[in-house]
Amino acid sequence: MDWKQLWEILSAADNVPIVAMIPLLAFYMYLAWKQAHANDLLIAELDGNAALAKTHHRKAWPFKPGWAKEVHVWPFLLRVEFLAAIIVTIILMVWSITLNAPLEEPANPNLTMNPAKAPWYFLGLQEMLVYFDPWIAGVVMPTLIIVGLMVIPYIDTNPLGVGYYTWKQRKFAIGTFLFGFIILWVSMIFIGTFIRGPGWQWFWPGQTWDHNRLIYEVNRDLPDLFGITSNWGKGIFGALVVGGFFAIGGMLVHAFFRRNNPKDYKRMSLLQYSIMMTFLLTMFGLPIKMLLRLLFHIKYVWITPWFNV
Amino acid sequence: MPEEKTPNGKNGKSVGLVDRLKAGVKEDLQSLKTDMPAKAKEQVELLKKPTKTQVFTSIFRHKHDDTPRNRALGVLSNVFLHLHPAKINRDAVRYSYTWGMGGITFYLFIVLTLTGVLLMFYYHPSKVQAFRDVLYLEHDVPFGKLLRNMHRWAAHLMVIAVELHMFRVFLTGSYKKPREFNWNVGVILLVLTLLLSFTGYLLPDDQLGFWAVTVGTNMARATPLLGHEGPFGAQLGMTPYNDVRFGLLGGSIVDANALLRSYIWHCIGIPIIASIFMILHFWRVRKDGGISGPAAVVLDSEIKEAKK
């Protein structure tokens, strides 16, 4: 266990935001879960008691008849905003006094930084470069993430859960988002920051960064495993595998979705449903490709003269 | 023939100019003696009520006694506060619902604008001077180091705050009808925040920024159709000297032009675009019915299915 190495990574000035973000995220997940749980209990109670549902104020927070439903922004909201601004300023001041922004040697195109890392919020994309060619990891995937986020409101037809935390009414939407945001985005940033060392090699936390380490990785392509050698054969085989992933994966998601979310399934139009399927399966493709690479040393599944997947 | 002049004095006796002057001065002196103390007294009385002065009432258009009307007017008649409604849902002021992340993001944007403008006074976006300017800023400019640190950490904090804001909006289902469009504006603002941060990364012109931007923009080589290493790029005549990466960097390598482009996008281009989207974002928050909650829970049995 190389504690010095671990400390150097954890305390690197630009890594501090990520070190800070993990407890922050944990705290906010807890805060959200607590409220979702309270609301879910209330929903279950009201579902079982129609008389209460008619009279209840329908929030997990206390409310008594006669209390005003609305309060003045001045001073009740503005004082909170003012306090928030002061607290943020104090945090920022203390942070800026105690920790210096990093400044390396002057830029030198002849001396490559190793590892050369992107800013922390792009490390997820950089980590994806291990598993995909740059045109997918650097261009297609970011575009799909942005477009995918933008279509969310138009494909989520579930009318429940607007304006309050809940888990039971929106299991599918929240589960998918947590998977994309926490499992994929945040954990890949984590890997890119704390695990990847010189040569973008995998170093466990506490392992010394050995700049001379060489790994003779034998990466194979999927067609090779099946003994396919001709270019045409590889192209067709890859197209079948990728197409098969979408077809079989699509069937599995379909079987799961229509059973567990029958109402949403009924509400969705063909366009909404197929857009959801496309983005969902593409998202699942990422961890599958990661596992293929990390566990089976498979580099490409689809090889063509123009592009490889 | 001219008319005979009417005499000015009493009893038809004409009075000379000097006499008239004397009488006038005497009158003036008398008025100073009697009027001024009275006016001064009046003035002192007025000073005791500064809110009654014309200057005050010209600036603040309503009274400030603690009445519901004045509380509402305090928000509505103020250009900076009128983004808010006069009254909100009693539970919406709870920190646990909104986490305050949208507001904190906007506050950090203001902090970044202020510190950024101050940093611009000491920075030249040229290969010769950029790095030296940062050294100068760190070692010679009073509070220069603090200024740069604050700008850097506020930027990181803003990225975190934006992501947490998006997380909260998702978890509370606030992107649903009628707020679909504003969620889209928010996604664009998220992208702009990341781009703002990324374009600022190169500006110190050190190894960290140089290689981060090199790695980042190298991906643009691989853009399908538009990059010279991307699928079908070569077939469409893309070379390192005319593809999308060349357009981003103003050259085939990260050099002086890239520094200047980064600087202009960072200090002028993206902040203006982001400000426009922010205006839209805040406006739509109000127009779409204000903050989404905390709303009363809705039961599944209460949903009426639309007829197809």
Keywords:
A: 309 residues, 12 helices, B: 308 residues, flat
Tell me what the structure shows.
The complex is a heterodimer of chains A (309) and B (308). Chain A has 309 residues and is an all-alpha fold. Helices cover 63% and strands 1% of the residues of chain A. Chain A contains twelve helices and one strand, in the order αααβααααααααα. Chain A has helices at residues 3-11, 16-47, 50-55, 73-76, 78-98, 123-131, 134-155, 171-195, 222-225, 231-260, 262-267, 270-296; one strand spanning 70-72. Chain B is mainly α. Chain B has a domain at 55-84. Chain B is 59% helix and 1% strand. In chain B, α7 (144-171) runs antiparallel to α8. Chain B is flat. At the A-B interface, α2, β1, α4, α5 and α6 of A face α3, β1, α4, α5 and α6 of B.
Topology:
The complex is a heterodimer of chains A (309) and B (308).
Chain A: H1 3-11, H2 16-47, H3 50-55, E1 70-72, H4 73-76, H5 78-98, H6 123-131, H7 134-155, H8 171-195, H9 222-225, H10 231-260, H11 262-267, H12 270-296
Chain B: H1 17-47, H2 54-59, H3 68-76, E1 87-89, H4 95-98, H5 101-120, H6 130-139, H7 144-171, H8 180-201, H9 207-221, H10 244-249, H11 256-287
Helix pairs in contact in B: 5-7, 6-7, 7-8, 8-11
Task: Summarize the model shown.
The complex is a heterodimer of chains A (309) and B (308). By secondary structure, chain A is an all-alpha fold.
Please give the count of helices of chain A.
Answer: 12
- Termini separation of chain A: 37 Å
Task: Specify Rg of chain A, calculated over alpha carbons.
Answer: 25 Å
Strand content of chain B: under 5%
Largest interface: A-B, 104 and 107 residues
Terminal residue distance of chain B: 104 Å
Q: What's the number of extended β-strand segments of chain A?
A: 1
What structural class should be given to the helix and strand makeup of chain A? mainly alpha
